[in-house]
Amino acid sequence: MSHPQRAAAFISDAERTTWHDETLWFVRQKRDKAVYGIPEFQQLRQLASDIKAHTLSRLDEYLEQFERNAQANGVTVHWAADAAEHNRIVLELIRKAGATSLVKSKSMLTEECHLNPYLVKNGIAVVDTDLGERIVQLREEAPSHLVLPAIHLKKEDVGETFHLHLGTPKGEKDPQQLTEAARQHLREKFLIGEVAITGVNFAVAETGAVVVCTNEGNADLGVNLARVHIACMGMEKLIPRTADLGVFTRLLARSATGQPVTTYTSHFARPAEGREMHIVIVDNGRTRQLGRPDFRNSLKCIRCGACMNTCPVYRRSGGHSYDFTVPGPIGAILSPNIDLHKHSSLPFASTLCGSCTDVCPVKIDIHAQLYKWRQLIGEQGELPATKKLGMKLLSSVLARPGIYRLGGKVAREGLRFLPHGLTHAQALNPWAKARELPAAPKQSFRDWYAAQVK
Amino acid sequence: MKVGLFIPCYIDQFYPQVGIATYQLLEKLGVKADFPRQQTCCGQPMANTGCEQDAKPVYRHFVDTFSKYDYVVAPSGSCVYHVRKHYDVVEQTGAVQHVRQSTYDLFDFITTVLGVTELPGRFPHQVGLHLSCHGQRGLHQANESEMTPVREGQLSRLLRSIDGLTLTELNRNDECCGFGGTFCITEEAVSARMGQDRVQDHLLNGTQVLTGGDMSCLMHLEGIVRRRQLPMRVMHAAEIFNAALDGVARTSVRVGLNDANGTTEERPIKVTI
Ligand code: SF4
């Protein structure tokens, strides 16, 4: 299925679409309010973008520096070329620790690598400890948003899920009650967790430390109770210095939810006495993206989700319509790098309105990259044949004024004289499902001009 | 000043009144525009579909058609944005560079080149302005809500200057309408829903006349207004100004010449009744 088909299915529930759109728009408005309050916000964006550009331009050096410093702190650093290697490394570490269960705080990377199903298949019990993540995990769904993984669900849906899995009373939908139930449930899991996996928001090259931002404190709790901490990170998460961190923490929470800062900004530099800390650095297509000058900037992403909240298409089609770990505008420019064929409809799931580019805290030119992916998809023959042929034909007409004039006239006269039932037949003309065609006038502009203006 | 008028294909065939209003409005502001008959399209439909390569002959034809003018003016911010931004894939000859720099959206031309920021005339209706994304975020003709809460722009300023005209205060000032070129067909469901939501915002806030600077957005929105038989008229802003200027008692507007000294000059408004 392509994006339009999945989107149409989502939209067929008009009420839920309204609710989804309004919920995310509310987050966008909170972001706006926070942004308007910071006079230097646009300078901050530029600075963040520049720091990331600099880091990406010498990523190899920073990665090595980071590894050296992490090792000096007593951390074991592992390198994974792809998702499979990442998963193998993590499983091996768990086995070495003699563990059979683990707790995991929010990590889009492990989602990207499909770590959960892999571990479960290998007999490891995995519990996601971020509330939203836990909800979608219980439902065996993928997250539908970077920051708000269960945003596609209403409180009634969550009540249903918790009734089924956590034994809350049927029909319970009070967020307070549901959260409390999740809290108690997760407490137990935290206490028996032998291994804790966390994601990484920022990795500081000069110190070898990793920084994890959460609102629930679940990363800290997990790590502090477990004997082994495994931090999994994409190789683009680096920043050069601790001094750079403030630029990003100021931008991240404001862009994501309109908060001045995330509730917890946890720094993990070294293992505590008698414990282990591992960092797995993953490539999984990032080097390839780094090698594409037109798309390199997409690696600046700090996963704030602002481009999703602002995207008029995302808000009305839902995260699952993208069928990729990272949905929304940023997903639409990351996914073709992974599998151009499979995701070829995503760069077209946009009007190129440019709002994503304007909210992005690291100034990724998202809509320009969407346009460029479209060209690559066209060149690599991944466009539907009818589309390609139609465009070739159109082009040959538009480069020939004579045929063009005739064609325009035929279209207008056709619209004037053909019966409404035919011109608006929904099977032939998708435009007409929800819209009238323009009323065709008797005379074109060029005819008027020729008659009036000498 | 030689001004070439670019009337995009769908305006030429389906909205000739917008082309006529553009021509007459410019005339009232003292600019006699020329409409070169061999013009076709800017090539955007192909390029946005991923067929930029196929669009190159169309780009060259556009440049050949318009390079002899000092300015190219179009009542469509989207086409203008395309020429300025995306004609970078053909060889940058002098002609190409000239056309890219001198192609203007009608209201950008009126505001920036002619220096007109206020217009006389009367239009006693509540008008809802739909900002086209390419005009706003692409050509920076209006502030963006992503950056600032101040809702200000070339077109809203011109509209506000018209006597009797009130502008609708929208809940979402600059949300995209969902037209998006071929997007309106390939993503029909999302496109229609976006358009319906946009129209609803105008309806809720009292818009009687829905307007904008880009006829492609308006064609899509008008399709929804007419399908739902809503009590709302859709007009391109050129039509509003052209109508408002008809019957204007004043015979001139003050026009800035955009030179280093900030010189201004009275220009006659030729009223065509
Ligand atoms: S692309 Fe920009 S706006 Fe979107 S998630 Fe990444 S950092 Fe945030």
TrEMBL record, chain A:
It holds the Pfam family LutB_C. PROSITE patterns: 4FE4S_FER_1, 4FE4S_FER_2. This is Lactate utilization protein. Coiled coil: none annotated. One of its GO terms (biological process) is lactate metabolic process. Residues 291-321 form the 4Fe-4S ferredoxin-type domain. One of its GO terms (molecular function) is 4 iron, 4 sulfur cluster binding. SUPFAM superfamilies: 4Fe-4S ferredoxins, NagB/RpiA/CoA transferase-like. Keywords: 4Fe-4S, Electron transport, Iron, Iron-sulfur, Metal-binding, Repeat, Transport. PANTHER family: LACTATE UTILIZATION PROTEIN B. InterPro entries: 4Fe4S_Fe-S-bd, 4Fe4S_Fe_S_CS, FTHF_cligase-like_sf, Helical_ferredxn, LUD_dom, LutB/LldF, LutB_C, NagB/RpiA_transferase-like.
UniProtKB/TrEMBL annotation, chain B:
This is (Fe-S)-binding protein. It comes from the Bacteria. Residues 3-83, 127-221 form the Cysteine-rich domain. One of its GO terms (cellular component) is cytosol. InterPro entries: Cys_rich_dom. GO terms for molecular function: oxidoreductase activity.
